[in-house]
Amino acid sequence: MLVYSEPAETAAPAQGTRERVLDRVLTRGPVSAAEVGRALGLTAAAVRRHLDALEEDGLVEVKAVSAARGAGRPSRRYVVTQQAQRRLGGDHLDVALSSLERLVELGGEEELRHQARRAFAPVEDAYAAAVGGRSLDLAERTRVLTEVLDEAGFAASVRRVGAGLAPTLRADQVCQGHCPLQGLPARHPEFCEEETALIARLLGVDVRRLSTLAAGGHVCTTHVPLGRA
Questions:
Q1: CATH number for position 41
Q2: Is there a smaller number of Cβ atoms within 10 Å at the N or the C end of the chain?
Q3: What is the DSSP letter of 197?
């Protein structure tokens, strides 16, 4: 979770309100001020004050979303900026990139794939422990995997799409608002490819990546077709 410290005189005793607002944008963006307010029990006006401050600091930005069927004015929704994502990547990114480049020089493409698989091995182990040998349907497996990804620092959430459509068109979308490997996948897309392959293997169904942070998206979105289970 991105840590943003408010000035001492306005910080909440446990967790600063501004940090809570930023965390909501991170995990649910693109999201409106009203949606953030409903989730946190705040007025839209109070949320907008925090969002304005976060936008001034370069941590969130406005994304205009067209209204349904093109009617009405586009709504203002907020997402975390690339600057904030880079800050989440930590101070050791350059060292990690240099080390990886050296490994690639020595071992080539296969060594790069090996390192990418190693990076996601803890997710696979945590998923296996969470399932515990139970027989779960695809939606339940997706929920468990989302929880595991969230615990691993990917700011993950899942949403159902295709409600009201034929069963074969219904799907879950796993959204990841943060990548702990931020910077590595942008230089080496093999990390995203290995993560996608891992998700497909764990869920036992072909999945499709709709967007990635590494490619400039605001979230990583993986489409899980429930109708193909």
A1: 1.10.10.10
A2: C
A3: H
